[in-house]
Design a protein that fits this description.
The chain is an alpha/beta fold and 371 residues long. The chain has two domains: 133 residues, HypD, alpha/beta domain 1 (Rossmann fold); 147 residues, HypD, alpha/beta domain 2 (Rossmann fold). The chain is built from 18 helices and eleven strands. Helix 2 packs parallel to helix 13 and helix 9 crosses helix 14. The radius of gyration is 21 Å and the shape is globular. The relative contact order is 0.17. The structure holds iron/sulfur cluster. Iron/sulfur cluster binds next to helix 16. The site of iron/sulfur cluster (SF4) has 15 residues, from helix 16.
Length: 371
């Protein structure tokens, strides 16, 4: 725990906050982070309250569960209702599909099981050789290598994957190219970057002249990252910095990258709250297609039209870094973590969930603004 003291040291935090104030230009500055864990740190420790009023930190599409389209949840429910054992991470269990969630399907008798990792799902297949087992493989580049490792190790014949993995740089490129989210810098995700390194972000900085910093998950990490972004802005630089040097190398984890390349190819797919984003999702390579649940069970809802959000839910705008969760009229009223109406309120990685939970945080800045 000693290391955490260092990264939560009040005196150090105050010094960095002062340095941030000095560097902040006299105009609105907007940084976007792309990581549910960053939002948890920012809300839990009241980081926004330490920043000048014209410096804003928005959450982007950093929660893989929130970004999974309702149609992909529908696919997993369809497979469960056809009699497959469907395994999934706990986060995914209550996320709404078009009409229901996997949790609803389980209540109605489907065999849906929560697992801690894909190896538990493979074990379930080995223990149930007469049943078809489908694992919902979800997550960014952080979890995709664990899926790839199992694929390359060899899967049981009765096991298949509903691959819902998404890739981070393509969605960041989308945000920049669309121009909808006018942003001055990215706080890049620490866990994803441990796998991919810093190099995949470099074309974005070059092309869009946007500063980026890969940050860790403690208050001091996030504040230093903000300071580095401001320094780049002040000096007219747009580079990819690494604040999270205790975990991230420029080249990333090359072995994990190799496994991902051998197991998957990248494909164009829609994200919840986004249109189709080129090369932003993973699919099993043709040599593994007998373990691809969509092909094995001839199921593909990607062209189905479905509402990703209930009426009034602003999750799409939250995920695109356009509004704070508190700007949704249903925030913490009709929609709560116990009764979520949108995906961003379901999981701890979701921005709405993170913003609803820290009731002890007295200083969320937009609450001040509304006073
Ligand atoms: Fe959607 Fe609930 Fe967030 Fe509103 S508060 S945007 S309804 S998840």
């Amino acid at each position: 725990m000693e290391i955490y003291k260092k990264y939560r040291d009040k005196k150090l935090v105050t010094q960095i906050a002062d340095a941030i104030r000095e560097l902040t230009p006299n105009r609105r500055v907007k940084f976007v982070h792309i990581c549910g864990s960053h939002e948890q740190t920012i809300t839990r420790f009241g980081i926004r309250s330490l920043l000048p009023n014209n410096l804003e930190i928005f959450s982007g599409p950093g929660c893989p569960v929130c970004c999974t389209p309702a149609t992909e949840i529908d696919e997993s429910i369809e497979l469960a209702e056809r009699g497959c054992i469907v395994t999934t991470f706990g986060d995914m269990f209550c996320v709404p599909g078009t009409k229901k969630s996997l949790s609803d399907a389980k209540t109605n008798g489907a065999d849906v099981r929560i697992v801690y990792g894909i190896s538990d799902a493979v074990k379930a297949a080995r223990n149930n050789p007469k049943r078809e087992v489908v694992h919902v493989a979800i997550g960014f580049e952080t979890t995709a290598p664990t899926t790839a490792a199992e694929v390359l190790r060899g899967l049981p014949e009765n096991f298949s994957l509903l691959v819902c993995h998404r890739l981070m740089p393509p969605v960041m490129q989308f945000l920049l190219a669309s121009g909808e989210t006018a942003l001055d810098g990215f706080i890049c995700p620490g866990h994803v970057s441990t796998i991919i390194g810093s190099k995949p972000y470099e074309p974005l900085s070059r092309r869009y002249k946007v500063p980026q910093v890969i940050a860790g998950f403690e208050p001091v990490d996030v504040l230093i990252a903000i300071w580095i972004l401001l320094k780049q802005l002040r000096e007219g630089r747009s580079e990819v910095g690494i604040e999270y040097t205790r975990s991230v190398r420029p080249e990333g984890n090359v072995q994990a990258q190799r496994m991902m390349r051998e197991a998957f190819e990248s494909v164009d797919k829609r994200w919840r709250g986004f249109p189709v984003i080129p090369k932003s999702a993973l699919e099993l390579r043709p040599e593994f297609e007998r373990h691809d649940a969509r092909k094995r069970f001839a199921i593909d809802f990607s062209r189905e039209t479905s509402a990703d959000f209930v009426k009034g839910c602003r999750c799409g705008e939250v995920l695109r870094g356009l509004v704070y969760p508190q700007e949704c009229p249903m925030f913490d009223k009709a929609c709560t973590p116990e009764h979520p109406l949108g995906p961003c309120a379901v999981t701890a990685e979701g921005a709405c969930n993170a913003a609803m939970k820290p009731k002890f945080d007295p200083v969320l800045r937009f609450k001040k603004k509304g006073d």
